[in-house]
């Protein structure tokens, strides 16, 4: 099983640990992982700003980079969704091979047990594109049988305490360029999410998308809130909490 | 061009009121969830409603003619209005011909869209909106900020002040019971003296020529049952083929709007009352143009329940007025650009594209996909700022050259690590106004991979 590891640009640049955890996790469960070296961005920022045509060049690169892989797996529901949508017009063969990490673990690897421990109160933020676009879980608006792939994985982690939120899947307000174009609304949405996690006793917020967490972390660190963020791959990989992950100490003076 | 971001920023200045606004609408969303969960076949109903509406849109012309024929047979007079001016002129002429000086109104967002009140008031008519929320915003000289709950942006203290000024309630009184009773008494007088009554239309049935108006306060009935002249203003998309289809929509409408099983009043109208007259004005006002746009015509399926607003995390935190269009929220943000893309090019960006609107919509309008597609249209027509366009072109260029991307990536990380704080956190950095940037690591993932795995 040859898996092409798709690492979104901001994870490559700012969150290498998330990429490493994803790679280690995939290898742990039997995949032969290849990381094509000429990756950049999936083109979503341009497309969501109205310039899908500009983003298409990025898709050209993806098609080139991942030629011949059995699967393409990435630790981001949002970028994976964008890839899938864009590949629709290009290569249905490639399109069907693209998976977000959690759905790959539950649907393809069909993982039974996870060898990790995480003795903290964890709030699972349901990132919208994974949730509603890829169907990683059942959106709260729909009255259909409930599934939740990321949660089902977290439930296999030892000593983890998953916390119920008051609003189980409201958007955090990142939204790509929305975060800067609609700065005021975006910040307010993020603060409201953080408040929900805090009031329900969450110690660590996790998600399938680091972009949501980057936005929430930005607010948490600025406001010196006692809350951490970790990508789901890091928890599933058994990374634990590093001292350097504690926001207070990381606050730049 | 309307700037939602700028307007929203203004709304958000009152953080406490934003909290209240958000919570009030979230409450409506929660009620909707409870109401819909009581119907086991909810998702089938949505699918059925969507398909009935698709059928309507595929042969709207036939259904409209059928409706007209049957309505005329029932004794109604039917008018076709191609736009808002036409609509207003027709209603003005009906009032003039029947020597009517005042008009009571209920349940009509369409007349807001056409600015009928202003038109008639300019000609000296007294126009009274009789639904409580509508009357409140009419006193406040404001348009509705939500299509189901028009005065949702006002708190009871603000309403108490308005009522004190307009209908003489006690100064400082804000007890909802007291205010509602005062409004009721005030409106009763208006009803009893009314000569003509206008309502909107929720559903117009092609096979019967009748129409249905759904209300909670009963003002539509009160108005049209007292006044000798009854006028119904309907958008041409309000048609449904058969009476039997009503069951599908009535079960969806109130549950989606407020969580109620059904609205308190579901009034069916077919004929003019004895010695009275019934006029039906069918309004296009851009709807046929929209019907011709394959990617966007779906938005004509809307039954105006407001569920997309109640669920939208952006609407809840920015208020109806920040959209600058009669219909706000996700549905407004796809309808407005169809009317005037240049003016409303910013509205499709007033969304994080989370998709909750699409999932909550009882007639399955692909709202967030349409928002995305309107963004593409806005860019094609050149309605996106040059600086944004330029930065996207730059980004596109960088991302299509992996070596350049890597060089710029590591340079940027270095800059972030070594620069003094003021260089990074300043007025040019919108991200950093309230948020920290992520810490910049020395190694990218690729660097690590080359070192450890290759």
How would you sum up this structure in a few lines?
Chain A is 46% helix and 12% strand. With 253 residues, chain A is an alpha/beta fold. In chain A, helix 12 (210-222) links the parallel strand 7 (204-207) and strand 8 (228-231).
Order of helices and strands of chain A: EHHEHHEHHEHEHHEHHEHEHH
Mean residue pLDDT of chain B: 96
* Global geometry of chain B: globular
Helix content of chain A: 40-55%
Mean pLDDT of chain A: 94
Keywords:
heterodimer; A: 253 residues; alpha/beta; Rossmann fold; 2 domains; four-stranded parallel beta sheet; 46% helix; disordered C terminus; B: 454 residues; six-stranded parallel beta sheet; 23 helices; 52% helix
Q: Any chance you could write out the topology, listing elements then pairs?
A:
The complex is a heterodimer of chains A (253) and B (454).
Chain A: E1 2-5, H1 9-14, H2 16-28, E2 32-34, H3 44-48, H4 52-65, E3 71-74, H5 77-87, H6 92-95, E4 98-100, H7 101-108, E5 121-125, H8 128-133, H9 149-154, E6 161-163, H10 178-181, H11 183-199, E7 204-207, H12 210-222, E8 228-231, H13 232-236, H14 247-250
Parallel strand pairs in A: 1-2, 1-3, 3-4, 5-6, 5-7, 7-8
Helix pairs in contact in A: 11-12
Chain B: H1 4-12, H2 15-37, H3 42-58, H4 60-73, E1 77-81, H5 84-97, E2 102-106, H6 109-113, H7 116-122, E3 126-129, H8 132-139, H9 156-167, H10 176-192, E4 196-199, E5 203-205, E6 211-215, H11 219-226, E7 229-235, E8 239-240, H12 246-257, E9 265-269, E10 277-283, H13 287-291, H14 307-311, H15 313-316, H16 329-339, H17 341-344, H18 356-360, H19 367-380, H20 386-399, H21 402-418, H22 421-424, H23 445-452
């Amino acid at each position: 099983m040859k898996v092409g590891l798709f690492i979104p640009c901001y994870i490559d640049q700012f969150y290498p640990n998330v990429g490493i955890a994803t790679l280690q996790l995939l290898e742990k469960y039997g995949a032969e992982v290849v990381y094509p070296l000429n990756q950049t961005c999936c083109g979503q920022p341009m497309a969501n700003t109205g310039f899908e045509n500009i983003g298409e060049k990025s898709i050209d690169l993806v098609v080139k980079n991942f030629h011949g892989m059995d699967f393409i797996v990435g630790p981001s529901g949002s970028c994976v969704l964008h890839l899938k949508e864009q590949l629709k017009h290009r290569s249905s063969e490639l399109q069907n091979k693209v998976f977000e990490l959690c759905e790959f673990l539950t649907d393809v690897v069909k993982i039974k047990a996870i060898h990790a421990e995480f003795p903290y109160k964890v709030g699972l933020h349901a990132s919208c594109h994974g949730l509603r676009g890829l169907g990683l879980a059942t959106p709260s608006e729909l009255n259909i049988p409930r599934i939740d792939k990321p949660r089902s994985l977290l439930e296999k982690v030892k000593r983890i305490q998953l916390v119920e939120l008051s609003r189980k899947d409201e958007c955090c307000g990142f939204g790509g360029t929305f975060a800067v174009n609609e700065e005021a609304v975006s910040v307010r949405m993020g603060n409201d999410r953080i408040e929900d996690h805090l009031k329900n006793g969450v110690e660590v917020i996790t998600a399938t998308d680091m972009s949501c967490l980057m936005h929430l972390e930005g607010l948490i660190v600025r406001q010196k809130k006692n809350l951490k963020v970790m990508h789901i791959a890091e928890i599933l990989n058994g990374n634990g909490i590093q001292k350097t992950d504690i926001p207070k100490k990381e606050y730049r003076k | 061009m309307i700037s939602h971001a700028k307007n929203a920023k203004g709304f958000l200045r009152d953080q406490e009121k934003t909290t209240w606004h958000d919570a009030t609408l979230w409450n409506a969303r929660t009620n909707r969830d409870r109401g819909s969960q009581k119907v086991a076949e909810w998702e089938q109903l949505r699918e059925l409603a969507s398909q009935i509406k698709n059928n309507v849109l595929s042969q709207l012309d036939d259904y409209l003619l059928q409706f007209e024929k049957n309505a005329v047979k029932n004794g109604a007079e039917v008018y076709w209005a191609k736009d808002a001016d036409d609509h207003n002129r027709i209603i003005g002429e009906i009032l003039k011909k029947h020597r009517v000086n005042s008009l009571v109104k209920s349940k009509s967002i369409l007349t807001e869209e056409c600015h009928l009140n202003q038109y008639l008031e300019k000609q000296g008519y007294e126009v009274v909106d009789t639904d409580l929320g509508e009357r409140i915003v009419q006193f406040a000289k404001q348009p509705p900020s939500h299509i189901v709950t028009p005065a949702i942006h006002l708190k009871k203290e603000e309403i108490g002040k308005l009522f004190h000024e307009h209908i003489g309630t006690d100064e400082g009184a804000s007890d909802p019971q007291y205010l509602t009773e005062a409004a009721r008494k005030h409106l009763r007088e208006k009803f009893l003296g009314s000569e003509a009554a206008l309502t909107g239309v929720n559903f117009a049935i092609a096979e019967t020529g009748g129409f249905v108006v759904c209300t909670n306060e009963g003002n539509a009935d009160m108005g049209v049952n007292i006044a000798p002249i009854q006028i119904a203003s309907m958008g041409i998309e309000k048609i449904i083929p058969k009476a039997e289809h009503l069951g599908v929509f009535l079960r969806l409408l109130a549950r989606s709007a407020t969580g109620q099983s059904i609205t308190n009043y579901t009034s069916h109208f077919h004929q003019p009352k004895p010695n009275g007259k019934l006029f039906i004005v069918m309004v296009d006002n851009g709807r046929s143009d929209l019907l011709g746009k394959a990617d966007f015509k779906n938005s004509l399926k809307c039954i105006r329940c407001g569920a997309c607003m109640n669920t939208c995390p952006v609407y809840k935190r920015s208020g109806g007025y920040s959209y600058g269009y009669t219909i706000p929220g996700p549905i407004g943000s796809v309808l407005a650009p169809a009317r005037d893309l240049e003016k409303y090019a910013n509205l499709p960006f007033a969304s994080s594209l989370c998709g909750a609107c699409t999932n909550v919509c009882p007639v399955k309008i692909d709202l967030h996909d349409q928002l995305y597609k309107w963004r593409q249209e806005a860019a094609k027509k050149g309605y996106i700022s040059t600086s944004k366009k330029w930065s996207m072109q730059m980004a596109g260029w960088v991302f299509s050259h992996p070596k350049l991307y890597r060089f710029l990536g590591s340079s940027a990380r270095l800059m972030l690590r070594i620069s003094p704080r003021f260089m990074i956190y300043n007025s040019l950095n919108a991200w950093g106004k309230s948020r920290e940037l992520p810490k910049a690591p020395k190694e990218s993932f690729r660097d690590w991979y080359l070192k450890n795995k290759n």
